[in-house]
Design brief:
mainly alpha, P1 Nuclease, 3 strands
Length: 355
């Protein structure tokens, strides 16, 4: 009888442990799964377009893993205090009316970080653990620079400080673009890549001829569409005065003029989705093609980069705000430390992309 009670007790503990594991998985999916999707789509598209030399270099650095498997890692480490210094690597906040980089940025600079990590990969030595970190950041940052709100308005923190109503659910506006537009198609990242990957050689060449500075400006060009809502089912209360009054300026009210409306947050449904999914598809495809072109150059061995990229990189390195020493310090000792064990508090270690 005693043995039977012990077995029941063990069974109950196993059931509780499984329930907690499932609950943790559910929360993890809510927090990360669809944020992962956009980065994985971009990475998968790039993987399909790598030339043989770049593919071999990626295989060597990642130990046979794919670009999609490390694409989201720079977001996963945001919870580690030792990586707080990398937060500004993920966005380029450009003041309204300014043009990057001529008039500077208000906060953050993903382009500088991209140039920095691209330089690290070009300078790498075989087996250097820095290469895995640098490659993960390059893959991730190209994706970030093609999400329009990562080149968005500082006053609403790229939409993070703005609540909207998405098909009846209250969410922050940045999440709509990071996750919910992509999620609404109910496709895996491989299915997304299959549906998007139909560019001919001429389109690939055109897309890859742009530099990261061009990418920022292209993302900024999408903001008018992103911040436009519609009449009918998509209801638009505009915020007169913009961010200074606690919200972002939305256009698209019935009169096409900004006016204060008492009703709640912007309502987004099918009209908004239909218009802006076209933007999302284009940005994902072009991000993937450009990532492939960038990696082809990085791993091509000795030789000059594409002329436009060389000019852009020289311009970025020449900015007064470009500080390679500070980025070296941020990367710090992470390149020689193993990922922390499960029982080690996050603050005591700096994780690496898993190998």
């Amino acid at each position: 009888m005693k043995d039977r009670h012990q077995l029941i007790d063990v069974a109950e503990r196993v059931k509780r442990a499984l329930a907690m594991a499932l609950l943790s998985t559910a929360f993890a999916g809510a927090l990360f799964a669809w944020g992962q999707e956009g980065h994985r789509i971009t990475a998968e598209l790039a993987q399909r377009h790598l030339d043989p030399a770049a593919r071999a270099a990626v295989d060597e650095i990642l130990g046979g893993e794919s670009l999609a498997q490390v694409a989201f890692w720079p977001d996963e480490i945001k919870s580690y205090p030792s990586w707080d210094c990398a937060q500004p690597f993920h966005y380029v906040t450009v003041p309204v009316g300014a043009q990057y980089p001529d008039q500077g940025v208000a906060e953050g600079d993903a382009v500088q970080a991209l140039v920095y990590f691209s330089d690290l990969l070009r300078e790498r030595e075989q087996g250097d653990p820095d290469s895995r970190i640098a490659l993960a950041f390059v893959v991730h940052l190209v994706g970030d620079l093609h999400q329009p709100l990562h080149s968005g308005r500082g006053c609403d923190r790229g939409g993070n400080a703005l609540k909207v109503n998405w098909f009846g659910d209250s969410v922050n506006f940045h999440t709509v673009w990071d996750s919910l537009l992509i999620q609404s198609e109910n496709l895996s990242f491989n299915e997304w890549a299959d549906f998007l990957d139909h560019a001919d050689e001429g389109e690939v060449a055109r897309v890859q001829s742009a530099t990261p500075v061009d990418w920022v400006r292209q993302s900024q060009d999408q903001l008018d569409s992103a911040y436009t809502c519609f009449t009918g089912a998509d209801r638009c209360p505009c915020f007169c005065g913009g961010c200074a009054d606690g919200g972002s300026m939305f256009g698209g009210c019935a009169t096409r003029e900004c006016r204060l409306m008492a009703a709640g947050p912007v309502q987004m449904s099918y009209t908004y989705k239909t218009v802006n999914l076209e933007v999302v598809r284009r940005q994902l495809l072009e991000g993937g093609l450009r990532l492939a072109g960038l990696l082809d150059w990085i791993f091509a061995g000795p030789g000059e980069p594409p002329e436009a990229f060389a000019r852009m990189a020289d311009e970025i390195r020449g900015l007064g705000s470009y500080d390679r020493a500070a980025m070296d310090a941020c990367r710090g000792e992470s390149s020689v430390q193993a990922a922390p064990a499960d029982d080690v508090p996050a603050a005591e270690g700096r994780p690496l992309p898993k190998s």
